[in-house]
Structure formats: structure tokens, C-alpha cells
């Protein structure tokens, strides 16, 4: 209630005056207030609390247009990495059931998948994480408010509870970490009314059935991948290229594999409307830009995965002068994550030009807290951040794509080593390994420093992590060649890369 | 030949006949690298750089030149070898070396012969790894992991009949079919590369000469300028009554034409634990009999965790016992065997009944029956292993050795391959890179896989002193295991840093799924000299197991909590 009491003096003047008034009247309630209880926000808050600071976190999940909502922890835990990878695992286990028969396990048909069993298990685990986050905040003495926050002045946040009750909280320093939410194509009739997004998919109680996933982002391909894997009739509709921003050769291998895995693709198609039929099915109409025709089909579920938008609109940033990029809506920050207002910072998906990844948000949040309260000056290094796309055949990468490398250094100055390989486990299982591929992009001159590493195959994330570290340490091609392989693994093929793309030689790995 | 001139002071200076113009050219081009001195002439003997006038004179005075020439047998038969290189042993190392040598247009022969096991098991070209090692082992490990996957899959919504049984024969047949394709692939590769292959037992009979005896006992003699011994190792037997008659080894297991049933695995080597692990994973009743410690030479803290995990997963351990007698109760496939064992710490005798007894107590180098005495190659009499210099050269300069038979080197396929390739590149392509046996990563495919690179904790303590090393560690729970809610806080990550050297990472250990895939990249990073700070600055990939290494914060010294909670 202290906040309420304080509010009138906050309103006395402009930002500068406010600070003076606050200085006269003593300190704010909190040393640090974090808006948004996702990976970045929680990491920052907990780290700040370690330094004995008074910290609060505001988190509030605005229900999705379809009414889905969830607990503390943000996108990653509730509607991102965690449920996504678990459902991906469910799909992988589906392949394991097929493999197992080749390995001597007698499984009598039919094998069926029940969505509700999986969803329940995944949701229970996510709920246990929500609970874990709350306990952790409590343990670390971080005050948690389940309220929606917006700026009322540079040091005061106005909070609204679900019931509409208003609260005011003051803080010395404020970190914005509200993340992003899936975008709806509002211009398409029926999109909002009948479509779902990844915010809903993981919380569906019943199977989505025959599904159309619109978009070519990693979210789109990952979701379409696991839906196919658990046996659903799944179609991806994409306007142009898959996985924009990723290496395009790798991206096409990813989609090529998905096609052979059973995912249908409607390429160069743009949806125009979604209608509900009497049968309760959704009829989607789209424009095939290649053929110039209009086509239509009906689905049980239509999911939009056409991008994400930052959650900044309701923050009232204009009032306090926090600058955003007018095109993306994202908050502009400097290398120290400071916004245009010196005591207001931002981390995670909401910041302009940063990778939208949980571990970068966590690291950025922690480092920020250390700089603010722990006498550290270490800045976050956003270079060479590894990542993995959990499509049916996983794709892990770190560093530059081949296109980027060519653009930066010119094709004459880079050397690309590549190989098609077959994971040992695929042999007995009689699985096709056509798309199991890796490439290493190096500088051509002198030390042949590694610029980028790309790997498609099982456990790509596990494979790439260590190499990301090597690249961080400035690994060169000769150093990698001196590293002895671990036999028999997929990762060992990386230490054996010797065919250059330039040579045009067959890059298929044969034998041991 | 003009570029290399005889030194007038030494009257006889033979220059290798195989040093053709092009190689000579290469040598000349490489002059600055090879010789720091600039004075000429540069003298090479047997392609070995001796030095300038003075150094040559010195070498001559010390008798080194003479020795080098004689030991290569050059004086006896200078021009008439059948081959440039004969490789004895067609395993990973031998084949890699042979194929590499063929690339440089050398005339190469590979002799490979599999002496059947006491029970008569035999196999094709490719050596241990392909036939009775890494490959079938990992495939059967995969079969066991799939058994676990079947259980997990129900929790992830998959439904199928309650009872799922494993069919040993179906698995073994698939595995053997794949191996057969590899055997065939090797033969084709040798033919394509124009390497002569003989399925015959090779043994030295006199300098530069081997006798090759094929299955039908037909003997042939071949000569070569150089030899490479790559005969590898075979499983050791106990030397107790009944061992060779009734027990099997890993040489038999992977092609066993019947399900082994209730199995006693004797030994605590990685072979023992890997085999015990997958047999149990396939649903068999498995007991491991251990004389002393598990996984000697590996980090003991981790070794014990592996043991605990296996025990929790239904594998019985009989510790501090050794078998003294194996008797057959009943013949059959499998039959029934009675094993009598004695305590290593007392007089206690125990008996047990099993269908199969698998011996995995170690491996012996195949060096005692290949005529090494005839050519003077020294072996360690106790272990049978061959000591070599850092260029894989034995005490007889024209004879080299690689792979599992080397003394004090690692018994790993990729090491043998690397050593073989680099050796050949040095011999025939003017290369200078030597095989680096330091920081070689490896993985043990026990049910909970273990990947390691660099020092174990105890060896680091011994080498650097406890006060100079910092151990960071943490348990972790793979995301995929949360939904089936199994094995929380069993997976474990540990790194060992040298405090005196900027906290450089000198040991890496991971216990968890896909440990090999995880370890490989970190091994590359260790090669690049990674420090703890760099590890901390690397962004994790979420959600994977390997990311735990980017967030290790608890030191062992602190005694802090390492049980993992949340994201």
C-alpha cells in the first residue's frame, strides 16, 4: 500500500522532477523491478536478489485469443522450448517404436498415439516448473506479483490484477522482459476467430486432428514435425523460403526430410480466408502464387506460425520515453541492455536485434544484474550463439551461415567442408539418411578459422554445444582435424570433414 | 638425385632408392622446415634428414649412419621388395594406413586372418571394432535403449500391447547383416585403392620378409621395404578349469546364435559393463562378478555412479570374487553352467548357476606369434605390447606399429586410424605431423553413457595437487526423462580445471544420454585450450543436456548442492 500512498507525489512533475522528489523522499520500494517473469526476467531478478537487493517481478499472462493461459515462467517453459521439445520427443519415440522392431522387439500392431495422454503429461510437467519458479523466487526473496504492469512514470509501475484492482510499485531500476507473442494475420478473414497459435497448441486437451500450419518459421516446422510424428495429417503452408535467416542449404534439407517423413507442404501459397463448415471443420482458401490459382481444403485445426510480435504496446513506454523500433515494435537497447532511459533496461525477445533464445535472455539478464549490483562490467557477447531447430531431423548450428560468410568475406575467401553421413543407429533400423549432412564454413587463408558449423541429424543440439565452445575459443580447421573422434557417434564425423565444396568431390561418408 | 649430394668425407652414403625426383623436390622445398641450418649439402638417409656436412660427419663417427643403413636391411636386398608396405592386421588402424599409403601410389599389401575363438567364432575383414567391438556393441546398446524408449513412449501417449518381448536372434541377424555389409565394403575399398589383400596369417620369418599362411595352410613369402604391425588384441581367458570349454567372450557374444539367457559377466572393464548393460536392457537376468574396482583407469567417482545406476536397474553385482571353476550342468543353446568363485578377501567360496558366462577380464596383444623375435622387434615381455617412439616406429626402424598393441597408448579405433594415417603421410608424403595421444575423448556405452576427455579427478590431483585443481560439478535431469519421471539426479557433469593455468579445463566428464555426441565438441574445445571463463561465456542450447556445462557453478570443494531444480 506504500505504493498507493506514494503515487500523488509521483505525479507532481516530469521525469526529472520525479527523481528529485524521490531523492528527497527517500528510496523507492524496490532496488529492481522486473516486468515479465520469463526466462530472462526471472534470471535477472534472482541474480539481483543474490546481491542482497530488494527485487520484485511482475508477471501476467494475457490469455490468447482462444483463451489459453498459463503460469509463471514465460514462453520457454509454458508455450515454447519445453513443451515443444517434449512433444518432439513423443514424435521421436514414435520412430523409436518402428526402429525397435528392427532391433528385435516384438511389438504387435496397431500402435496408436493418444494426444490427451501426452498433453496431460507435458502440462503436468510444465505446471511443476511453474511451481518450481514460484518457490525459487520465494527462496531467493524476490517479491512476485501476478499483475499486469505498465509505466505510470519513470520509476513507478501501475499494476492491474485480474480482478481489475490497481496497484503502484516504485523502483530504482526497471527491467522490461515481457517477451513476444504469436502474430495473427488480422487481414485474413476468420484467422483470429478460428485459428490457434503455438500459445494454444501445447495446451489443447484433445488432438488437433488434421492440421494446417501456416508459416515457415522454426516454430512452424517444429510443430508440423511433431504433429506428423505422432500420426496426424499435417500440412505446412509457406509463402516463400523456410527458416529465413538460417543457412538455406540446411533449411531445404530440413524441409526435404520432413516431406519424406510425411509432412505435406503447400509452397508459395498465401491463405486468404478461413471459414467454419457445418461439419465444424475449417475450410481454408489460399492463393497458389506459382500457378495463380485459388485452392481450398478443410482442416480440423489451423495454426498460425507466421512470426511473433513484442509485447510492448500495453507498457505505456511513450510516457517515460523508452524508444522502440517503429517497424518491429521492439525496444532499442545499447550493449549494456540500457534503453533510451538510463535506469530502464530490457532483455530477451523484446529487445531489438537480439536472438530470440532463452539462454541468451538468461545470460543477458544475469550479466545485467551483475553490472547493476555486483560491480561487474562484463557485457553480454551475442556472437556465435549456438541454436538448434527441433524438426524431426534436428538442425543445430553456430556462427555464420554459408550465405553470410560469402557476404562477409567473398566466396573466394571461404572454404566449406561438408559431408553426408549415416548415423550408425539408422543402419539396422533401415532408416533413410539422405538428409544427414554437416558442413563447416572456414576462412580459406592462413589458420582457416571456423566461421560457422551446421549439423543435421539426431541429437543435433547435444552435438553442437561443445563445438560452439570450440568456435568461441577461436577453433581452426587444423585444430578440429587434430581432435580425435569418439567412435561410433555422429559428432565424430565433424572431426573428419575433409571434402571441400569447391572440389566438387562426392561428400558421402563411407565405412568406418 | 642431383640435389642431394654425397658427402665426400663419408665414402658409402646410400640414398634411398624410393626417394624419387618428386619426393626429392618436396624435400628440397621443405628445406626450411626440415633444416634450420642453411649450409649445404643436406644429407638424407632413408629419407631421414641427417643434416649438413658436420652433422653427417658426427652421425658417421657415432656409427648412426651405418646402423640406420644396416637396420633397414638395405645392404642385403636393396631393390627387390615385393611391396613398399605390408600391413599385418586388417583392423581400423591397419586398413586406414594401407588405404592412405595407396593414395601415394605405394605398393601395399594387407594380411588379415581371424584365428577362431575357442568356441569357433570367426569373422570377416575389418578387425575388432567392426566385427566384435564398437559397432555391434553400440547397435546392441541401441537395442537396449529402444527397450527403454518403449517404456517411455507409453508415458508420451503411445499405446500398444502390454507385453513386448525381445527376440535375440532377430537383433543379432540384423546386426550381423550390417557387419557383413561393412566387411564387404572394406574388401571393395581395398580393391578400388589397389591394395593387395590376403586372408592369411602373417608372421615375420626373416628381415623384410613375412610368411602368409591361409586357411588351407598354404604358405607364401612376401618381402617389403617397410612393415606395419596392427594385429590388435583378443580377449583374455581366466586360465581356470572350464573357461575355454564353456565360457564365451565378447568375440562370441555379438554373433551368438541363441539368446544367452541368465548371464554372468566376469570383469569390470568397460567391455564387461557395456555388455552387462545391454543384456540387462534386453530383459535378461545379468550378474557382474568384479574382482576389485570398476573401470580401472577411468574417473572413479564416475565409475561408481555407473555401477550404482546399473544396480538400480536390476543388474546384480558380486564384488571381490573371482571364478575358480566353470562346469557344465547341461548342454544346450544355452545350456546350464555352474560357476564356483572364491572371495578375494577371504576363503569364502560361492556357487552360482548361469546359462552363459561371458569373460571380459581384459585383452591381450596379438604379438607373441607373429615372429617378432625373428626380426628383433622388442615387446614388453609382461604385457606383450610393443614400445614405439613418437612416430610409431619400433626398435627396428623399418617396422612400425599402431593401435591396441602399442605400449602406453590408447586402445581406441579413432586413435589407431589417426595414427595410421599420419604415419603414412609422414612416410610417403613428407608430412611432419605426429599423432597426438593427449586429450583423446572417449565414451563408455553403459546404460547411462559416460563421455570423458582429459584427466580423471584422481589423476589430476596426483599430477597437479589437490589445492591446484578446481572441480565444478552438477547433477542434471534430461528433459526427456521428466515426463516418464525416471532417474532424476542420476546424470552428472563434472569438469576439472587447473587453477594455476587460468582455470584451463583439463578434464571433462559427462554421465547421461548421448554422452558421446555431447563430449565430442567439448574435446575439440579442450584442444583449443578452453578455460572455465570461456565455458561460462558460451551460450547454452536449450533444452539439451550439454547446456549444463555452460552453467556449472558449484565447486566440489564448496560442498554446495548439486541437485538440479528447474530450468
Automatic annotation (TrEMBL), chain A:
Q: Which PROSITE patterns match?
A: PYRIDINE_REDOX_1
Write out the GO cellular component annotations: cytosol; mitochondrion
Record-annotated Pyridine nucleotide-disulphide oxidoreductase dimerisation domain positions: 385-496
- The domain of life for this entry's organism is Eukaryota
Q: Which residues form a coiled coil?
A: none
User: What region holds the FAD/NAD(P)-binding domain?
Assistant: 30-365
Q: Where is the signal peptide?
A: none
Query: Which residues are responsible for catalysis?
Result: 487 (proton acceptor)
Look up the record and name the cofactor or cofactors this protein needs.
Answer: FAD
What are the BP-aspect GO terms? cell redox homeostasis; cellular response to oxidative stress; glutathione metabolic process
The protein's matches in NCBIfam families, at most eight in alphabetical order, are given as: TGR
Full protein name? thioredoxin-disulfide reductase (NADPH)
Automatic annotation (TrEMBL), chain B:
One biological process term in Gene Ontology? glutathione metabolic process
Entry EC number(s): 1.11.1.2, 1.8.1.9
Reaction(s) catalysed by this chain's protein: H2O2 + NADPH + H(+) = NADP(+) + 2 H2O; [thioredoxin]-dithiol + NADP(+) = [thioredoxin]-disulfide + NADPH + H(+)
Q: What is this protein called?
A: Thioredoxin reductase 1, cytoplasmic
Binding of FAD, residues: 138, 202, 404
Question: InterPro entries, from UniProt?
Answer: FAD/NAD-bd_sf (IPR036188), FAD/NAD-binding_dom (IPR023753), FAD/NAD-linked_Rdtase_dimer_sf (IPR016156), GSHR/TRXR-like (IPR046952), Pyr_nuc-diS_OxRdtase (IPR001100), Pyr_nucl-diS_OxRdtase_dimer (IPR004099), Pyr_OxRdtase_I_AS (IPR012999), Thioredoxin/glutathione_Rdtase (IPR006338)
Q: Which residues bind NAD(+)?
A: 267-274, 362
Q: List the disulfide bonds.
A: 129-134
Per the UniProt record, one Pfam family is Pyr_redox_dim
State the similarity comment: Belongs to the class-I pyridine nucleotide-disulfide oxidoreductase family.
Q: Which residues constitute the catalytic centre?
A: 542 (proton acceptor)
> NCBIfam families of this UniProt entry?
TGR
Cofactor(s) named in the record: FAD
Q: Please provide the record's keywords in A-Z order.
A: Disulfide bond, FAD, Flavoprotein, NAD, NADP, Nucleotide-binding, Oxidoreductase, Redox-active center, Selenocysteine
Report the protein's function. Reduces disulfideprotein thioredoxin (Trx) to its dithiol-containing form. Homodimeric flavoprotein involved in the regulation of cellular redox reactions, growth and differentiation. Contains a selenocysteine residue at the C-terminal active site that is essential for catalysis. Also has reductase activity on hydrogen peroxide (H2O2).
A Gene Ontology cellular-component term = cytosol
Per UniProt, residues of the Pyridine nucleotide-disulphide oxidoreductase dimerisation domain are 440-551
The Gene Ontology terms for molecular function here are:
flavin adenine dinucleotide binding; glutathione-disulfide reductase (NADPH) activity; NADPH peroxidase activity; thioredoxin-disulfide reductase (NADPH) activity
Residues covered by the FAD/NAD(P)-binding domain: 83-420
The record's comment on cofactor binding reads: Binds 1 FAD per subunit.
Q: What species is this protein from?
A: Apteryx owenii (Little spotted kiwi)
Amino acid at each position: 500500500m506504500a505504493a498507493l500512498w506514494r503515487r500523488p507525489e509521483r505525479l507532481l512533475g516530469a521525469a526529472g522532477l520525479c527523481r528529485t522528489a524521490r531523492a528527497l523522499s527517500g528510496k523507492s520500494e524496490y532496488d529492481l523491478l522486473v516486468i515479465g517473469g520469463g526466462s530472462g526476467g526471472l534470471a535477472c531478478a534472482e541474480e539481483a536478489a543474490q546481491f542482497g537487493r530488494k527485487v520484485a517481478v511482475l508477471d501476467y499472462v494475457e490469455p490468447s485469443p482462444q483463451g489459453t493461459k498459463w503460469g509463471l515462467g514465460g514462453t520457454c517453459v509454458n508455450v515454447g522450448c519445453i513443451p515443444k521439445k517434449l512433444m518432439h520427443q513423443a514424435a521421436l519415440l514414435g520412430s523409436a517404436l518402428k526402429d525397435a522392431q528392427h532391433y528385435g522387439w516384438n511389438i504387435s500392431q496397431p500402435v496408436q498415439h493418444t494426444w490427451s495422454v501426452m498433453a496431460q503429461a507435458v502440462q503436468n510437467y510444465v505446471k511443476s516448473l511453474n511451481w518450481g519458479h514460484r518457490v525459487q523466487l520465494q527462496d531467493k526473496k524476490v517479491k512476485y506479483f501476478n499483475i499486469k504492469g505498465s509505466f505510470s512514470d519513470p520509476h513507478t509501475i501501475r499494476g492491474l490484477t485480474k480482478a481489475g484492482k490497481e496497484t503502484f510499485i516504485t523502483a530504482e531500476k526497471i527491467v522490461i522482459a515481457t517477451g513476444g507473442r504469436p502474430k495473427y494475420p488480422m487481414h485474413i478473414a476468420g484467422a483470429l476467430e478460428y485459428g490457434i497459435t503455438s500459445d494454444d497448441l501445447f495446451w489443447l486437451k484433445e488432438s488437433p486432428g488434421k492440421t494446417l500450419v501456416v508459416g515457415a518459421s522454426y516454430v512452424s516446422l517444429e510443430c508440423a514435425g511433431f504433429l506428423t510424428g505422432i500420426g496426424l495429417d499435417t500440412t505446412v503452408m509457406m509463402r516463400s523460403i523456410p527458416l529465413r535467416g538460417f543457412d538455406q542449404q540446411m533449411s531445404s534439407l530440413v524441409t526435404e526430410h520432413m516431406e519424406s517423413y510425411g509432412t505435406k507442404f503447400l509452397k508459395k501459397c498465401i491463405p486468404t480466408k478461413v471459414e467454419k463448415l457445418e461439419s465444424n471443420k475449417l475450410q481454408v482458401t489460399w492463393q497458389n502464387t506459382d500457378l495463380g490459382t485459388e485452392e481450398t481444403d478443410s482442416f480440423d485445426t489451423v495454426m498460425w506460425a507466421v512470426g511473433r510480435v513484442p509485447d510492448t504496446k500495453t507498457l505505456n513506454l511513450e510516457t517515460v520515453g523508452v524508444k522502440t523500433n517503429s517497424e518491429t515494435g521492439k525496444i532499442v537497447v545499447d550493449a549494456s541492455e540500457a534503453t533510451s532511459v538510463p535506469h530502464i533496461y530490457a532483455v530477451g525477445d523484446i529487445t531489438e536485434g537480439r536472438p530470440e533464445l532463452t539462454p541468451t535472455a538468461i545470460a543477458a539478464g544475469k550479466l545485467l544484474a551483475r553490472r547493476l549490483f555486483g560491480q561487474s562490467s562484463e557485457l553480454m557477447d551475442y556472437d556465435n550463439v549456438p541454436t538448434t531447430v527441433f524438426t524431426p531431423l534436428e538442425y543445430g548450428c553456430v556462427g555464420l551461415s554459408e550465405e553470410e560468410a560469402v557476404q562477409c568475406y567473398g566466396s573466394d575467401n571461404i572454404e566449406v567442408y561438408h559431408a553426408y553421413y549415416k548415423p550408425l543407429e539408422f543402419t539396422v533400423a533401415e532408416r533413410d539418411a539422405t538428409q544427414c549432412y554437416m558442413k563447416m564454413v572456414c576462412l580459406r587463408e592462413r589458420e582457416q578459422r571456423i566461421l560457422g558449423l551446421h549439423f543435421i541429424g539426431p541429437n543435433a543440439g547435444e552435438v553442437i554445444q561443445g563445438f560452439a565452445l570450440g568456435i568461441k575459443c577461436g577453433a581452426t580447421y587444423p585444430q578440429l582435424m587434430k581432435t580425435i573422434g569418439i567412435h561410433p557417434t555422429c559428432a565424430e564425423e565433424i572431426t573428419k570433414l575433409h571434402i571441400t565444396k569447391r572440389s566438387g568431390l562426392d561428400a558421402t561418408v563411407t565405412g568406418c | 638425385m642431383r640435389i642431394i649430394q654425397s658427402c665426400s668425407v663419408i665414402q658409402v652414403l646410400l640414398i634411398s632408392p624410393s626417394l624419387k625426383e618428386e619426393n626429392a623436390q618436396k624435400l628440397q622445398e621443405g628445406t626450411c622446415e626440415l633444416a634450420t641450418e642453411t649450409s649445404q649439402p643436406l644429407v638424407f638417409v632413408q629419407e631421414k634428414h641427417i643434416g649438413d656436412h658436420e652433422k653427417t660427419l658426427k652421425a658417421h663417427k657415432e656409427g648412426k649412419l651405418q646402423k640406420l643403413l644396416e637396420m633397414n636391411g638395405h645392404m642385403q636386398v636393396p631393390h627387390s621388395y615385393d611391396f613398399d608396405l605390408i600391413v599385418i592386421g586388417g583392423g581400423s588402424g591397419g586398413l586406414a594406413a594401407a588405404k592412405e599409403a595407396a593414395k601415394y601410389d605405394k605398393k601395399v599389401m594387407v594380411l588379415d586372418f581371424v584365428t577362431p575363438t575357442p568356441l569357433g567364432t570367426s569373422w570377416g575383414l575389418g578387425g575388432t571394432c567392426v566385427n566384435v567391438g564398437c559397432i555391434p556393441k553400440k547397435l546392441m546398446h541401441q537395442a537396449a535403449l529402444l527397450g527403454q524408449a518403449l517404456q517411455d513412449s507409453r508415458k508420451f501417449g503411445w499405446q500398444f500391447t502390454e507385453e513386448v518381448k525381445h527376440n535375440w536372434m532377430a537383433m543379432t541377424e540384423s546386426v550381423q547383416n550390417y557387419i557383413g555389409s561393412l566387411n564387404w565394403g572394406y574388401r571393395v575399398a581395398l580393391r578400388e585403392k589397389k591394395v593387395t589383400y590376403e586372408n592369411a596369417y602373417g608372421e615375420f620369418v626373416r628381415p623384410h620378409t613375412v610368411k602368409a599362411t591361409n586357411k588351407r595352410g598354404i604358405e607364401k613369402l612376401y618381402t617389403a621395404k617397410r612393415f606395419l604391425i596392427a594385429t590388435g588384441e583378443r580377449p583374455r581367458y581366466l586360465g581356470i578349469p572350464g573357461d575355454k570349454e564353456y565360457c564365451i567372450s565378447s568375440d562370441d557374444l555379438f554373433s551368438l546364435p541363441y539368446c544367452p539367457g541368465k548371464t554372468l559377466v566376469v570383469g569390470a572393464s568397460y567391455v564387461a559393463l557395456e555388455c552387462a548393460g545391454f543384456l540387462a536392457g534386453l530383459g535378461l537376468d545379468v550378474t557382474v562378478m568384479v574382482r576389485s574396482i570398476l573401470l580401472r583407469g577411468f574417473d572413479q567417482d564416475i565409475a561408481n555412479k555407473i555401477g550404482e545406476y546399473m544396480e538400480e536397474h536390476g543388474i546384480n553385482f558380486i564384488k571381490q570374487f573371482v571364478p575358480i571353476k566353470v562346469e557344465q550342468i547341461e548342454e544346450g543353446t544355452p545350456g546350464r553352467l555352474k560357476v564356483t568363485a572364491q572371495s578375494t578377501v577371504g576363503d569364502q567360496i560361492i556357487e552360482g548357476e548361469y546359462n552363459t558366462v561371458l569373460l571380459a577380464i581384459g585383452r591381450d596383444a596379438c604379438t607373441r606369434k607373429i615372429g617378432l623375435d625373428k626380426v628383433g622387434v622388442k615387446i614388453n615381455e609382461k604385457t606383450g605390447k610393443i614400445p614405439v617412439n613418437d612416430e610409431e616406429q619400433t626398435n627396428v626402424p623399418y617396422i612400425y606399429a599402431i593401435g591396441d598393441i602399442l605400449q602406453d597408448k590408447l586402445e581406441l579405433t579413432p586413435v589407431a586410424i589417426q595414427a595410421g594415417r599420419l604415419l603414412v603421410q609422414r612416410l610417403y608424403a613428407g608430412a611432419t605431423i605426429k599423432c597426438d595421444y593427449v586429450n583423446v575423448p572417449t565414451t563408455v556405452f553403459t546404460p547411462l553413457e559416460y563421455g570423458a576427455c582429459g584427466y580423471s579427478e584422481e589423476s589430476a590431483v596426483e599430477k597437479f595437487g589437490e589445492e591446484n585443481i578446481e572441480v565444478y560439478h552438477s547433477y542434471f535431469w534430461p528433459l526427456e526423462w521428466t515426463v516418464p519421471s525416471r532417474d532424476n539426479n542420476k546424470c552428472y557433469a563434472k569438469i576439472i580445471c587447473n587453477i594455476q593455468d587460468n582455470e584451463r579445463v583439463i578434464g571433462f566428464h559427462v554421465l547421461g544420454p548421448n554422452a558421446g555426441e555431447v563430449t565430442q565438441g567439448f574435446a575439440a574445445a579442450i584442444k583449443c585450450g578452453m578455460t572455465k571463463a570461456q565455458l561460462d561465456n558460451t551460450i547454452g542450447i536449450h533444452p539439451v543436456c550439454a547446456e549444463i556445462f555452460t552453467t556449472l557453478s558449484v565447486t566440489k570443494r564448496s560442498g554446495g548442492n548439486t541437485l538440479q531444480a528447474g530450468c
